[in-house]
Every structure is written in C-alpha cells, then in structure tokens.
Amino acid sequence: MDLCRADKVLLAGGAALATSAALFGASTGGLGVPAAAFAAILADGIFRPSSSTFYPTLSRGPRARAQVALTFDDGPDAEVTPRVLDTLNEYGARATFFMIGRHLERAMSIGTRVVAEGHEIGNHSWAHSYLQNFYSVRSLLGDIERTESLIRTLTRSAAVPLYRAPVGLKSPRLARAAHARSLRIVAWSVHSRDTLDSNPKRVAERVLAKIRPGDIVLLHDGHQNAGAHRHSGADSLPLILQGLRARGLQAVTVSELIAPERSRTRCENG
Ligand SMILES: [Zn+2]
Questions:
Q1: What is the CATH number of domain 58-268?
Q2: In angstroms, what is the span from residue 123 Cα to ligand 1's centroid?
Q3: Closest Cα to residue 68, out of 234, 231, 213?
C-alpha cells in the first residue's frame, strides 16, 4: 500500500490514542491529553505553511550559496506583473511566479513573457479557494491539473511545476493529492507582509532585515479577487533588489536555488 506522509501521521495518531485509551482508560489522562497533543500536531500540519507534518515542504534552499529566491503569488495581473518583470530585468534578477490558473487563463501573454525572460512559473491552484481543504482528493487533483496544463502550454516542458498551496494551508487531503502527483510543495522562509503594508520602504526593510542566503521570500504581484490589485510588492522590489545587490546576494528562481551543486556545474559548463 502506497501511503503518503499524511496517512502515516493520521494512522500513528489513531494508534497512539487507541493504545493510550487501552492502557489508561478513556479518562482525561488516557484520552484527553494524547488527543490534545494529536490535535496540536494536526493543526501545525494544516496551518503552518512551512510544516512538513503531512507532506515534505520546502521553505528555503541551501545557506552556503549567495543566492535567494523571490516569489510572487496570486498573479498574473495585467497592471502589476509587467512592472515586476521590468524591474527584474533592470537588475538582472530572476524570480518565481506562483500563478492562479483562472488568472493565467485570461493573461497567457504575460505568462509567455515570464517564461521568455527566464523566470519560473509555479502552480498556485486554479481557484485559490479558501475552501479547497474541504475538496475531495479527486477535486483537488482536477484543480491542480487544470493549472498545470496551462503552465505546460507555456513552458513546453513535461516537468511538474512547483506547487504553493493557497494561503499555505495543507490538509491531509491536499497532501494525498500532492503525493499522487509527486508535487514539490514550496512555502517560504521570509514573509514580506506586502499584503498588509502599503509602504514599499517598510516592506523592503522588513525583507532586508531578515534575509539570509538560501531564503525564499513571499511577495505578491496579484490578488485572489479578480479586479483587485496589489502594488506593494512591485513598489518595494527596486529597494529589495538594491539591498540584495549591496550584500552580494543573487536573486534566482526557486528551482535554481535548490538545484544540486553537481547539476548546476554541468549547466554552467554548458
Ligand atoms: Zn495566494
């Protein structure tokens, strides 16, 4: 039987509760305390974006190389994404865009530009629904595959795009769907809070105060609601890239950040 990590956690938790109840009885000590501990583990697995409780989740790359990955979520956006691309070009930086499928469908020309300019596109679900953790595994797979097929049209690659869960939430069902698709789930190690702060200087300072080699930074070039825009990430980007340059940190895609040293050397040698 091919069990994903989420199934193993749930089975182990259930077995531990049954054993405890058998040994100590269904009292507060026998059932209540272990049940509370198990609930805390489940909550951590679902609500902490970088948690690997249910599924291996990447939140940063190696610390040894002078590289970081800037990631932009919830686009593409007709107003904001082109500005982000212009700034990245100006500084010779690359980034990863975790796109919402239903936004990408309406802006494929922006997706084409993102790929042509050497950036990476990741899958940020089709609908970006807060309810997706209540979907069946089959519905989740449909949502994931729908966006994947659009991304493949642009990249002309059979590779499975990186995946970032909406709001970073990972239910056991999403873990099962990810396991079935062999997804690589990517979270972040630095949150810019650009969705809560309209001051670009403050957003950039927040990122630059925390950032170290290997970090993955969360920014936004889009909004989950059609017609709404988020400018704070794009406005802070020149300041962030100036700060990275001053520290000798190169902005690369997530796949470049996590590529093993050997394959990188081979690539660089042609
Ligand atoms: Zn999002």
A1: 3.20.20.370
A2: 10
A3: 213
